[in-house]
Write a structure and sequence with these properties.
By secondary structure, the chain is mainly alpha-helical. It is built from two helices and no strands. Helix 1 packs antiparallel against helix 2. The longest helix has 28 residues.
Length: 57
């Protein structure tokens, strides 16, 4: 389960980076903001999983 969550976090981060880059190229501020939000969500999920790992070991 933890590996699935870590993979999901990475996907969100990558999707966010791509969305942000496309938004910047297109001059679409909304898409850029959505990309940043997706990255933040992925970062938060990854931090949560790292915290869980710390307490498991």
């Amino acid at each position: 389960m933890a590996q699935e969550e870590k993979a999901r976090a990475k996907k969100e981060q990558l999707r966010g980076k791509a969305k942000e880059a496309i938004g910047r190229m297109a001059g679409n501020e909304r898409m850029t903001a959505e990309g940043k939000a997706d990255q933040a969500k992925g970062d938060a999920r990854q931090a949560k999983e790292k915290g869980k790992d710390t307490f498991r070991h």
